[in-house]
Fold this sequence. Notes:
Blueprint: E1 6-10, E2 28-29, E3 33-34, E4 60-62, H1 63-73, E5 86-89
Parallel strand pairs: 4-5
Antiparallel strand pairs: 1-5, 2-3
Amino acid sequence: MTWQGEVCSVHLADDGGAPMRSPEAIEAIAGRGVRGDRYCLGKESGHFSHKKAARRQITLFESEVLETVVRDHKLHLAPDECRMNVVTIGVRWFR
């Protein structure tokens, strides 16, 4: 099977609960996360997680989920409101 996806937007927050910023690009640092993001800075306050692990370094979100939320719940969320670092389209993430 062949598919092609893309990154729709990127986001980071300086601290837990801080507004998400949407720079044109982000830098992923191996073993640390997204440069400038609260988890990379060691400011893990907030609701996501206090556990330090590789799976906590960068977060991905399928934009198709936002479409499902609108369809099923009539709730419109902007990509930065999901509070994930990378929002994609056409990319299916498998566990």
